[in-house]
Structures are given as structure tokens and as C-alpha cells.
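Input:
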Amino acid sequence: MAGFREARGDLRLDAVTKTFGDFTAVDGIDLQVPRGSFFALLGPSGCGKTTTLRMIAGLEQPTAGRVLIGDTDLTGSRPYERPVNTVFQSYALFPHLTIRDNVAFGPKRRRAADADEKADDALNLVQMAGFAARKPAQLSGGQQQRVALARALVNHPEVLLLDEPLGALDLKLRREMQVELKRIQTEVGLTFIHVTHDQEEAMTMADTVAVMNRGRIEQLGAPEELYDLPRTRFVADFLGQANTGVGTIKDVEGDHLVVNVLGTPVKILKSRSQVHEGDVLFGVRPEKVTVSRTRPEGAGNDVRGVVRDVSFLGVATSYLVDMPSGATWSCYEQNLDVEPLDLRPGDEVWLTWNPGHAFGVPAEEPA
Amino acid sequence: MSALAQVAGDPTLDPPAAAPEVKRRSWTAYVLMLPGVLWLCVFFLLPLVQLASVSLQSRYPGFPGYYYRDLNFSNYASALTDYAPHFARSFLYAGLATFLAFAVAYPLAYAMAFKAGRWRNFMMICVIAPFFTSFILRTFAWSQILADEGWVAGVLNFLHLLPNGHIINTPIAVVAGLTYNFLPFMVLPIYASLERADPRVIEAGGDLYANGFTTFRTVTLPISMPGVLAGTLLTFIPAAGDFVNMELLGPQRGKMIGNVINDQFLAVPGGYPVAAALSFTLMAAILVLVFLYVRRFGTEDLV
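Output:
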């Protein structure tokens, strides 16, 4: 146990960069994760999220920058010296050890006298106590996943890292485990850092989500915040669906910007647009758009379109509407009315939305 | 298969269309097995029976080279009493060679699996390359390498490390030759099991507070045990029965059991029954040793 570093507090990444040859995987990330929070690193594959996680674990060393927990600088220390444990993507259970020995591995390395009891407690927590004597190969994917979680949790790390832990599970099991993970996190109160490419998973579980793209954090905030007011085009596209169009800001009317999107004037609240002149990417979420047969009175934002497709989803009906600009918008209408709209492909409709729900982000991705 | 046949025989469950398909599938299995089974029968089982029968035959007194069918167990008695030292020597040398091959092969296989990067294929070719020349030729080459005039003996003599000035025609040369000749059989299975190991599993060791050495001891080595087991068996079994290394590199006296069998078959008139008895004894001894070894160190899946 020589070299093990006790550390308590928030996890901090300080201008962390990682390059492999001439490829920059992580590009100067600054991050502060409050102690005890459930934090998600969300991004497409290759965005640097797993590399970031591995640098926190100590499995990779940053090319530049520092990794700290509280006031303890962990940069350069080995994985076994850090109060950090990982749940690996493929679970990485020790195939030659029983489930109990797998979970007791960490406590035994730290010379805990009651390693086996600790292991049994952790297995209880993930509801796998009945499988302690088995070998990993005798368990299903979902069960191995729970064991991998127990094997990390049993050490009470200051930070628990989860590398796409639910990626290999089927949809139903994934939903169950999302709830389960959240429950366990609340119960043990540890800092969880969850890496995923599944935006729904990140939004359901995490208190704070950081959206990563090309080695940088595009935007960081509560899931609702990211969804409601994306600040970059990437976040708008990656998190949920958005009806978007590139336009030019023509005018300012009080609190609103007037944007000309391919001939159609639309309004955005000034405070909800990241750019106030020139080109802007206008966007509005599908559920914020109202579909009606007749032009509504005085809503401000309204566009006429032609229904292309109608899908009844139960709780809602989804419409695809061809816009005069040539784009296709998607809209959700909750099925609240006794008499539904009864639209068919080819019908003309009016789409309206509250300008307070629209957002504007820079039209071009920064190079 | 038997479960299916039962279902097919049950009148209440019998689906008429299913029966012919079950039959066809079982035929395919037998047809596929046929060449292998025939090969084993003709070239393994029949010679083995023949050998067993020879091992119990007796000589016609006064007619060396002529035998009659018998149940003469004294062949086995003389095999065990006259040649016990040769058996012991064979197992000792083969054991030493296996241990040395393991000591050389494990680091090599480890380097190939985890550290070699783009040199991996080149190293693999180097390990396999000796197979492109004959076993006998390679052993001859070693008799040159270890000769008194060679640089190995020269260096060792210069350092006064050779008590009688020679390395050729000593047990050391035999063990060295055995180690060299069977090294690839040790490297390849260990490499295969290491290469197949999930690197995340080894990283997990580090993540769970095990330093480099502890991770190796508690994770990497146990994961590669099937390869180690296969490698030691593939080295020990042929090495124990080998006679070429002793013939070309070894001393005149103090032969291994393979040489005795070889001589009894080819050089000693009327030696066939004893040679056969020795072969059977060697086979049985190796089977027992391997059985004990696998019982002690074996894992559920070999390789």
C-alpha cells in the first residue's frame, strides 16, 4: 500500500491535455465535479471522454495539466495509489476468481482484515449476494455488470468512474440499471463520473452533464439547462432533437431578435441567442411546436407547411412537416384532446411556437 | 441426441417430419469423424496393440531375433530394474528443460503480447523460424555451438565456469538442447493465452490497488495458467522420450530412456520385447505424471 494517497473533496481537472502522437484526444479541459454528485461525460465516440476518464483513474497520464481531488494533486501517481475506482466497459472481472474474490480483491490489496465481509456487503448492495461462489463466466451480462459495480464500490473510493457501464446491456435491463445506479449513488453518496454516448442515459441519471466534442467540453450544466438552452450547434444536435435552420439576424424588436430563415422571419429572445448579429442557427425543440389547421391569432412565430408523415405514438403523435424552406420539421403533439387533429400526409398546417422557446447558436462550428 | 431420439420415440410427441432430419444430422457427425478415427485406428491403436503384444513375448532360446507369443511379464520387470536410472534421468532432464524453457518463454511471450508493438509479428516469425529446418539439423548445429572450439565453451572456460573444460557431451548440453528444441512449444501457448487476455482485466488489477508485481502475481499469471499448463506438457512429454539430443550432445554413458529404447529396437539383437516393455512403461509413467500435474495445477479449460 506504499504510495496510496488519501484525498477528499471535489474532483478537479486543471487544463488537462492528452495527445497521442499528433492526435489531440483531450484539449485543455477544466472541470470541477462537486463531491457526492452524479456527473456525466457525454459525447460521441472519439470525443475524448474515455481518455479523460482514464486520466482520472491514472491509467493514462495527461500530457499537460493537473488532476486533483480536494487539495491533493494526483497527477503522475499510479492507478493503485489513487482513491479512485473504475467500472470498466466490458466489466473486466477477473475470470479466474469467484465473484466474492473478485469483489474482495481491492480490500485484500489494502490489507483489510474483513475483506470477505466487505465483499458480501457490497454484493448485497447490488443484490448479487446469492452468486458469491460462482465464476464470472457463469453470470449474465447484467449480473457481471452488478458485480463490477460492487467490486468498485466496496473500496469506498472518493470518485467512482463508470466507463459506458450499460453499453452492452439490452434496452430493458439498461433502464433498470439506470434507476439502480442512481439509487446506489444516492445511498453511498460517492462522486460518480459516468461516461456515455447515450444522451438519454446521461440526462436521466446525472445531476450535471458535460457534453464533449473533439477533446473539448462544449457545454456543461444540468440536463434541463442543456436541453432547453444549448449554446453550440453540436449540443443542439447531440442532445435530443431540434428543428433548426441557418438564418441572418435582420432586426431587433425590444427583447427579440428577428431572424430571416430562408425567407421566413422568426423571433428569438435576445437572452436565448448566443449571437446577436450576422448568421445564426435558429432552433426549436419538436414538443414546443404547435400544429394547427388554421393560422393561430397573434402568436408571432408561424409558418405554413405540408404534412409529410404522421406517426401515432400513444402518448403523443409525431408529425413530419415539409417547410417552405425545404427543411423537414418534426413536431410532437400530446394526445390530450378527445377529438384528435386527424391530419393526413399532404394536408396544409400552420406551425407556431412561443418565441421564448426558440434558441440561437453560432451557425458555424468553431474550427 | 439421445434426448431427441426419446422425443421421436414418444408416440404423443412424435413429429413425423423431424425424425429423418435428426438421423441425417447424426450421420454427418460420423462421416466427418471417419477419416480421423480410421487414421487413429490404423496408425495408433493397431501399433499400440502390436506393441503391447510384443512387450509380452519371449525369445526362442538360441535364436536371437525370434519370439513367440507369451505373457512374459519379466520384460517389464527388467525394464524397471535394469533401466530405472535411465527413467529417472529422462524425467530429471526433461523437467529441467521444461523449467528452463518456461523461464525463457514466459518473459518472451509476455513481451510479445504486451510490449512488442509493431515488432510482434517479427518476433513471432523468429519463434517459428526454427521449424523450417529439421530437428536433427538444428541439434547438429548445437553440437557445433557447444563444441570445445566454440565460443560458448571458450567464454565459459575463460571464466573458469566449466569444471572439466567441456560442455559438449555433458548433461548440461543435453538439457540445453532439449530447452532450445522445445522452446517454441512453450512460447506459443503462453503467448496465445496472454494475447487473448483482456487488457482491461489487467488494468483492473492496478485500479484495485495492486502494484505492477502484485497485478502480475494475482491477475496476469493466473489468467495465463492454461497456456503455461499446455506449454509445460507440450515440452515435458516429448522431452522425456527424446533421444536425439542425448545422442548428438550427450555423454557416452548415462543415457536417457529414449536412447535405451532406440538401442534395444535397432542395435540389440532380440531386444524387441524389452524395448516394447520400456515404451509402455514410459508411456504409463508420463500419463501418471501428467495426470498428477493437471490435477494439481489444471484449470477447467486447457488452452
